[in-house]
Amino acid sequence: MTRDDLFNTNASIVRDLAAAIGRVAPDAHILVISNPVNSTVPIVAATLEKQGVFDPRRLFGVTTLDVVRSARFSGEVLNKDPASTPITVVGGHSGPTIVPLLSQSPAAKGISGEVYQKLVHRIQYGGDEVVKAKDGAGSATLSMAFAGAKFTNALLRGLNGEKGVVTPTFVKSPLYESQGIDFFSSDVELGPEGVAKIHPIGPLSAEEEKLLEACLPELKKNIEKGKAFVAQSA
Ligand SMILES: NC(=O)C1=CN([C@@H]2O[C@H](COP(=O)(O)OP(=O)(O)OC[C@H]3O[C@@H](n4cnc5c(N)ncnc54)[C@H](O)[C@@H]3O)[C@@H](O)[C@H]2O)C=CC1
Ligand SMILES: O=C([O-])CC(=O)C(=O)O
User: Fold this and answer.
1) Is 29 a catalytic residue?
2) What kind of architecture, by CATH, is found in domain 3-61+223-232?
3) Cβ–Cβ contacts within 10 Å for residue 141, how many?
């Protein structure tokens, strides 16, 4: 079971929730956790667009668990407290679309070879590992609660006017729009309106260039699938 398999169940639920939000709370900030995030975020956007109330500053796909896993697993490899190994993760939220930028971390940039390959694989497939282990009984409940709270707190700090609150999140983004990929996760500064500034992804290592190459076509498919679902909905 991959996150994309959840599409058939979750797409209509997310669409209907988005339509209700558009009707009764069009100014709400919407934090989407339901999978597949790469498709459900475009579904929310397209639904709100249909209603004429979409504000891209207020819609977020929660990819924080990938950031939490990256810090945790890198910390294990380096034998360091995860708090001291923060990692930016860009792209989307499923397998090959999850691109951890270890080269940008002073602590993790030296990890290489087989250890690097295994670490990246574990970050990309950590969620699937949990889903398999729970064998039909749900997903990463507690760590998602932690990640959801972490992202929500960051957003609330930004909304309250705190400066310099920056974290990766999957938003409507200009970074790869020219390639038909108009949603992307990268570091985003959060401010009084929600999205204040979308940061570029910065310098990549040769390995990360390859990871990004694998990410983009998959992400494009996932986004298009979400949009097509709303276009076909009555
Ligand atoms: N973004 C992320 O990093 C993560 C996303 N997830 C996603 O979060 C979602 C929930 O995961 P779990 O809590 O493990 O699943 P779960 O199966 O334990 O819980 C799903 C809940 O949704 C309720 N539900 C079903 N249909 C509904 C409807 N039409 N309206 C309202 N509620 C409804 C069910 O009664 C159940 O309580 C899944 O889509 C999962 O893939 C989970 C972990 C991490
Ligand atoms: O795959 C799932 O349903 C859960 C998930 O997103 C994760 O743990 O990252």
Assistant:
1) no
2) 3-Layer(aba) Sandwich (3.40)
3) 11
Which ligand has the nearest atom to the CA of 146? 1
Q: And the tokens for 209? A: 């260039």
% of the chain surpassing 70 pLDDT: 100
Check residue 129 and give its pLDDT: 93
Please work out whether the CB of residue 62 comes within 6 Å of at least one atom of ligand 1: yes
User: What pLDDT is attached to residue 80?
Assistant: 96
Rounded to the nearest angstrom, the distance between the alpha carbon of 149 and the centre of ligand 2 is: 16
Distance 214 CA to ligand 2 centre (A): 20
| ipTM of predicted assembly, 2 dp | 0.96
CATH 3.40.50.970 for domain 64-217? no
